[in-house]
Description:
Heat Shock Protein 90; 6-stranded mixed β-sheet; 9 helices; 13 strands
Amino acid sequence: MKAAASLQKRLSLGLTLMLGVLWLVASVTAGLVVQGELNEAFDSALEETAQRILPLAVLEIINRDASDAAQHIAALQAHNEYLTYLVRDNNGKILMQSHDANPAVFNPLPVEGFSNTASHRLYGASALRESVFIEVAESLKHRREAALDASRALLLPLLGLIPLSLLGCWLMVRFSLRSVLAYRRAIETRGAGDLSPIEVANLPAEIAPLAAAVNHLLERLRSALEAERSFTANSAHELRTPLAATLAQIQRLRREAPAGPLQVRAGQIEASLRGLARLCEKLMQLAKAEGGGLLATSPQDLALLSSYVVEELGRTAGERLKLSLPGNDHVLSNIDPDAFAILLRNLIENALKHGASDQPVAVSLSSSGLLRISNAGPALPATVLAQLSGRFVRGNSQAEGSGLGLAIATTIARGVGASLSLASPVPGLPDGFAVSVQFVLSSPAPML
């Protein structure tokens, strides 16, 4: 599945791209305007130059000695001559020219007003009843270079503007979305069983209705789950008393009934009632696992709780239970003691029922908070192993059971932030089954 794009990234890049495009359009428009203004200024310079030089050239031509040689105006010092001129008669004969003028770039015959050649812009004027003409030429390349320099001056700041705009947009968007980010963190950090309303102040108007809808949905979901848990717990609790009374009557009937079919049938009924009583107990445990109250107000020693549970179950399991604790170290976690006892009891009972009856069940707790329960027996296929933590799911064993033990343990582990994993065969062995629960450790409570 493709990861969703960040809104902050979208807005930052979008705003930066929009600013860049607007700046580019503005720069191109300004460049075109500048180019038009430069052309007007250059044309004005051509006209002014022609009108200033022509009277002086006429006086020079009239006062000089008659000669067929064109007069070259010498430069006072070396420089690039952007404006060159020719003074000619009406037949095109050159009477005077600037020091760097190239007659080849001018019109063959003098032309008054503005005109263009392939490489130059020209302006012509006449005097003495159109007997003397002057044409001033300017290279079009020079004009293009001037326009290009102006456009470059407008566009070059864009290179620095883009990263600055990206940074500014990112900071602005991040500042604007700080309440949305806080709302996201509030959702991410809460546990799977926390269905309380999510309260975050100053949400944008576009997000506030969504937050209200989420809180409304959480409230409906919490009410539905509480109704389901209440029904499960109440039903199981209400069934315990009549089941106990019925079981007592069946046991009394078995003692009073003569040997024969009635005795066998009473035994079957007693076994069914015992199984139903165990199912009620499991349903009550499941209701507690799915409800609140899985975390304690102060850290609990898992090593001490494990020893209590194993000692209690060892009275019926005998020598099959083997407990391994991390010496004198305390393994502290914030799990509720009753919840931990339910989890460990279900895992041990599951191992005792479905493991090899002639092999021990190993219960170990490490100082890092890793609880492991393993038993001997045939290895389970991966397909069966992947479904074992579901409700009312049982493996290939023929032992009696409700199929809720692993589901209850998984629900409790998820509710306290622990991770539960199944393995078959046992790591390092050719067969067997192991359940590992990694608890989140906590520091000791401060002394008052």
